[in-house]
Design a protein that fits this description.
The structure holds 2 protein chains of 2 kinds. Chain A is mainly α. Chain A has one domain. Chain A has helices spanning about 10-25, 25-50, 55-60, 65-90, 95-100, 105-135, 145-170, 180, 200-205, 210-225, 230-260, 265. Chain A is globular and about 60 Å long. The two termini of chain A are about 35 Å apart. Chain B has a single domain (about 1-105, about 170-250), classed as P-loop containing nucleotide triphosphate hydrolases (Rossmann fold, 3-Layer(aba) Sandwich), CATH 3.40.50.300. Chain B has helices at about 1-15, 55-65, 85-90, 110-120, 125-135, 150-160, 180-195, 210-215, 230-240, 245-250, and strands at about 20-25, 30-40, 45-50, 70-75, 80, 95, 170, 200-205, 215-220, 225-230. In chain B, the strands form 2 sheets. A 6-stranded mixed β-sheet of chain B has the order 6-7-8-3-9-10, with helices on both faces. A 4-stranded antiparallel β-sheet of chain B has the order 2-1-4-5. The chains are: A mainly alpha, B alpha/beta.
């Protein structure tokens, strides 16, 4: 393997350790990780309880809204978790230090992906566990398909996060707001809370181009009919690979351009 | 394969200068930051890039560090081509600048541990303790890096820069914003460190007395070009001045860029 590409797990761990130290250094940030998913779960749990007695749709599967809310958070938190760790380096103006070490850009990306998964798990697990005593609903009752849904949404979150980080590298901190907003454009067409058939026909084509749509349709198939749609999973994974490739390309091209423009030393608030 | 690679690298390290720059150009859409400079820095010396704001010093250092891609030219550091094989050179060099702080929210020890891991050091804790003692930072290893004074930050940045025992140390204004006492302490430390380790230091500076004291080779830069070079005393004699600051002012106030005189 060439020196340019030689991988070091130690360097990835060093970067992961940096983000864990950051998380540990601020309890409000750790609390925030737990706060939003739990709050969402509470709101939608009570809403589900209300609809349970008023809607035949929800009556057929009480957990469908709660599961949708929690799975949507995997996508949202996955993207945000990656972008936040990236932004920590921007706010600290730390790229000039990091990239005079032997750290490779792809090793940095691996640490960002790992930290994104840790943040998602830290945020989601307490909310999922709290739903069990509160609403007698366990998202884990979905079974093994839950792992597949989780993986597809997390990878899509990574793809989106990498593309956003690439845009921030290109446009500077003025594009920081993208980290909090872009993912929500996927929400209406991902059929999170309603079937994709509700959408206008022309929008359905866009919806089926998103891996997330297959997850939420697949989730409803499991919860309503007890059927796990492997065709949905395979299509979603193929789309995931495509989007992850695109997201990574945007990131690495932007990183290379940042080196050309001299932005690595200047990038920051 | 590894032995072959290291053996080659070792042979290269024995013969190659610490820094070799050939016809380096960095052009931005609106300006030329570095305009065809060439220079060599021998092993084991302290050299300086000297010039006013916008002369191209920091741009040159950034290219040497691999943070910035040049428009044209060749850059070799410790015998390695920085445009093709910078990861062979990066573990053997380091950088410090008072303008690039370490992350504020991490403690000094956490910052140093992370950088020690990034350099793949096995004896991380021992090395940090030793540097903390040498640089007198042991008392605030547990303090967040953002809560240090300018002098403390400079010493911590130096500790970071010396973690991997670099063969080449690049410094950008190493004593900027320090009081005279702390500045003098840093200069003494760097002098002693270089003599003890045989490493090479290349600094960008505005501080003429610092350059006179530390450097055996000076490259005077203006508008992206090297307009003169030599030892501080050679430059002082050449321009008939009494110190390097007068030489600097003379060059800076020349309305027209003059290329360095022929030998």
């Amino acid at each position: 393997m060439s020196t340019e590409l030689s991988f070091s797990a130690g360097r990835v761990w060093a970067m992961l350790l940096r983000y864990l130290y950051l998380l540990r250094s601020s309890w409000p940030r750790t609390l925030e990780l737990l706060y939003w998913p739990t709050l969402q779960m509470l709101i939608w749990g009570f809403m589900s309880q209300f609809l349970y007695s008023n809607s035949s749709y929800v009556y057929r599967a009480f957990g469908v809204l709660l599961a949708a809310v929690m799975l949507w958070d995997v996508l949202f938190r996955g993207q945000l978790g990656l972008s936040m760790s990236f932004l920590e380096e921007m706010w600290a103006r730390n790229l000039g230090h990091l990239f005079v070490t032997p750290l490779r850009p792809y090793e940095w990306v691996l640490s960002l992906l790992s930290m994104s998964m840790i943040r998602v798990l830290l945020g989601m697990l307490p909310a999922a566990l709290l739903a069990i005593p509160l609403y007698h609903y366990s998202i884990f009752s979905i079974g093994l398909p839950l792992i597949a849904f989780f993986a597809v949404l997390l990878i899509l979150g990574w793809a989106l996060g990498l593309a956003i980080c690439g845009l921030i590298l290109r446009q500077g901190m003025g594009a920081e707001g993208l980290a909090w907003t872009v993912v929500f454009t996927l929400s209406p067409i991902s059929a999170v809370y309603y079937p994709v058939s509700i959408l206008p026909t022309w929008l359905q084509h866009a919806a089926w181009a998103l891996p997330s749509t297959y997850v939420f349709e697949g989730m409803r198939a499991v919860l309503f009919s007890g059927i796990f749609r492997t065709d949905y999973l395979l299509t979603a994974l193929v789309l995931d690979i495509l989007y992850l490739g695109l997201g990574a390309s945007v990131f690495f091209v932007s990183f290379h351009n940042a080196r050309r423009r001299g932005a690595l030393l200047q990038m920051g608030e | 394969m590894l032995a072959e690679c290291c053996a080659t690298s070792h042979i290269g390290a024995m013969v190659a200068p610490a820094v070799k720059v050939d016809n380096l150009v960095k052009r931005y859409p609106a300006a030329v930051a570095v305009d065809g400079i060439s220079f060599t820095v021998a092993r084991g010396v302290t050299a300086a890039l000297l010039g006013g704001n916008g002369a191209g010093k920091t741009t040159t250092l950034s290219i040497l560090l691999g943070l910035l891609l040049p428009t044209a030219g060749k850059v070799h550091v410790l015998g390695e081509d920085m445009l093709r094989r910078r990861y062979r050179a990066l573990p053997r060099m380091n950088f410090s600048s008072p303008f690039v702080d370490l992350p504020h929210r991490l403690t000094v020890r956490q910052n140093l541990l992370i950088y020690a891991r990034l350099y793949g050091l096995a004896d991380r804790r021992e090395r940090i303790e030793r540097l903390a003692s040498d640089l007198q930072i042991a008392d605030f290893l547990g303090r967040p890096a953002g809560k240090l004074s300018a002098g403390q930050k400079t010493r911590v940045a130096l500790a970071k820069a010396l973690l991997n025992e670099p063969e080449l140390l690049l410094l950008d204004e190493p004593t900027a914003s320090l009081d005279p006492d702390t500045g003098d302490w840093v200069r003494s430390y760097l002098e002693t460190w270089r003599v003890r380790t045989g490493a090479t230091i290349l600094m960008a500076s505005h501080n003429m007395s610092e350059v006179e004291r530390l450097c055996s080779e000076v490259m005077m830069m203006k508008a992206g070009r090297i307009v003169d070079r030599g030892s501080p005393q050679t430059l002082i004699d050449r321009y008939g001045r009494t110190n390097l600051e007068e030489v600097f002012l003379h060059i800076a106030r020349q309305p027209r860029i003059e290329l360095e005189p022929a030998n």
